[in-house]
Structures are given as C-alpha cells and as structure tokens.
Amino acid sequence: MPLNDLLSTLGDNPYFGAGFGLFGLGLGAAVLRKGASAGLVLFRRNFMMTLEVPCRDKSYQWVLLWVTQKAAKRTQHLSVETTFEQMDTGRVNTTYHFLPSIGVHLIEYNGKYIQVTRTREQQSLDLHSGVPWENVVLTAFGTNKSLFTNILEEARQMALKTLEGRTIVYTALGSEWRPFGHPQKPRPLTSVVLDDGISERILKDVQKFISKPYWYIERGIPYRRGYLLHGPPGCGKTSFIKALAGELQYGVCLLNLSERGLTDDRLNYLMTAAPQNTIILLEDVDAAFGGRHESKQVASAYDGLSRVTLSGLLNALDGAASSEARILFMTTNYIERLDAALIRPGRVDSKEYIGHCSQSQIERMYNRFFLENSNNEKYAKEFAETVFKTGKPASAAQIQGYFMLFEDSSPSELIKNYNLIWDT
Prior knowledge:
alpha/beta; seven-stranded mixed beta sheet; four-stranded antiparallel beta sheet; 14 helices; AAA+_ATPase
C-alpha cells in the first residue's frame, strides 16, 4: 500500500485521530504551563522585588507594627497582640492591637501596592522564645530598593515614638537582651539627691564622652567609658544610674555577674551585643566571684557549673573582642574587695564615692520632699543640723523612708522624732 494511502487510512481511523489530538492538546497545555511559569519567574526577577523579614531580626516587630497601621483596618483576618503600658501614676493599662493574621494582605503605600505575606512554620520553633518561627515577606512592583528602606525607617520611627520618653530596662535571657517589665517613665535626675557636685560631675563627663567619638578614633583610643560607684548600701547608686539613663534618653542593661550558668563566653557576647543607646550596669561586682555570704554547702551544690572568672570579666571589659561605643557602670558596697586590675584606668575611668548623707544633702532632700511647707528653708536647715549633730550615719534610703513616715506631720514633729530615722 502506498504511503499516502496508509497515512490517509490512519487519519480516517477515529482511534488514531483521537489519540493524536489528545496528545497534541496535552503537549500544548504543558508547553503553555511551562512558558507561563517561566515567564512569571522572569517577570518577578526583573520587574518585582521582595523583602523577607524573619522573626529573629530586630526590625520584625517594627514591621508588624507598621503593617498593623497600614493594613489592619482593611483586612478581616486578624490576630491580636496584647500590650501593657504603665501610666505616670504607676497604673498599668491593657491595650489590644489587631495585627494582620497569617496569610496574604494587600496594602497601599505612597501610590504603590504592596503584597504582605505573613507565614508561620508549625514544625519550627524559635529556641529562645519557644514560639513558632514566623516571617513577613513584602512584595512590590519595581526595582528601586529605597522603597523598602523607607518602609523600614518609617517602621523604626513609629516604634520609637511609642517608647518616646520612656526608659527601657533590659535583662539577659540566654544569649540575647530582652526588655524587662514595662517601659518606665524616666526619673528626674534632680530627684536623686547626692552629695554636692557628684551628680553634675558624672553627667558632664558622660555627655562629654557621648559628644566626641571622633576624638577617641583620631587618637586610637577605644571609644568606651567605665564608671565605678562605691559606698554603703541604700545611698542612691543604682537610683542615680537609672535617673542618668532617663536624662540621656538611654536604656539600662542589667547584668548579674553572679548568675548561675553565666560563662565567660556568654558574658563577652552580651557585653558586645548590648542594644544601642544603653548603659550596661553591673551591680555588686564584689559578689561575682564566689558569693559574699555563700556557705561551703551551697558552693559545693553548684560544683561543675561554669561561672564568670575575673579573667573573663577583664577580657570582656577591654579585651581584643570587647565592644566599642559603650558606657559601663559598676557598683559595689566594698571597693576594697575588688582586684586592682579590675578598677585600673581603661577599665574604670572614673570612681565616685556615694556615701551616707551630708548635712547639705539632707537639707536638699528635705526641700525636695516637703515642697508645700512654708518657711521650708528654715526647717530644712534645722532638721539637717539636728540629724547631722548626732554623728550617726544615715543613708538616703533611711532619710527618704523617714520622710514618707511623717509626710503629713508638722515640721516641728518631724524634727522632734528624728531618732526614728534609724528605726525605719
């Protein structure tokens, strides 16, 4: 049979025609799918841009807040975030913020539409917080990455505005710093009454340090500053540091050197990874190397657990890997117990003794506490002279406690019962 007749016969065969038709349709559909997929990938690579913000990144909460402001009012799929705000009176208010939930959301920003995709991995957990791993992906048309830069900066400014005028206290959790408690209203620096000139001297020195980073760089001097406040307990060392942080609009990073399980490596990392614009505070450094009142039985119970060594602390303060642009305050009640290497210049640049109240200090505390009394100066001077003449040392905490005990009493009654200062 000639070839033409054979092909004609096969073409007339309905089974053969149906098979080739289906094959052709399937092949065409597959080519179209592949072409569309490749075209979409090519289009996304050349005409679209994406930004992934993982939950471990510091800007993650900023971006969530920003997305909340831009999209939460338009979407019907929400999740809730409960926050607490401490008022000036000390009362804590509860606020509920509605965030776009897991899924895809569309928002408009400066004339551009941005797709926001929030995903959560149920099988993966953040080891530090114990919550499922999340990320947010922003997708937009164009290739100008300044759009994402503007979004991140706007989100950062929005987050800072919510904390404006507040002091954040951080504590170490694992290998990172976490906010502790509620952001606090800054305590006025003048409310911490120290002996004449001490407060002003430290404030001036810190401000000078902050204002001249290039002076240190040009001279090859490490840009960090260390302070040691020493003296009896209850005299205002820690209170002054927190008030100073509020005056500078800085946060405070509290680090307990005697914490069980704190190692030299972790200490070094925490000192290096402290949040920007914060004061690192090491309290009671004399108790870091073997507790002050630790019995042999208690010490033996923790044998084998790593603890910070003096060498590790010295390396964290000014070793080869120590951080720059750092303000460090250390406090101690017993300066004589500190190793000379710890408080040498370069590690501690300024030492201030915060001792028991002087006569002028008591007088200034009286004037600040009893603002509404008439003839305040007269009574303040008389009270300060009466207390000081006893020769008994009185801490600022004792004086303040006595004032609170007699806050509604007359000046004469306040002066008459001064002996109760040492009973409060």
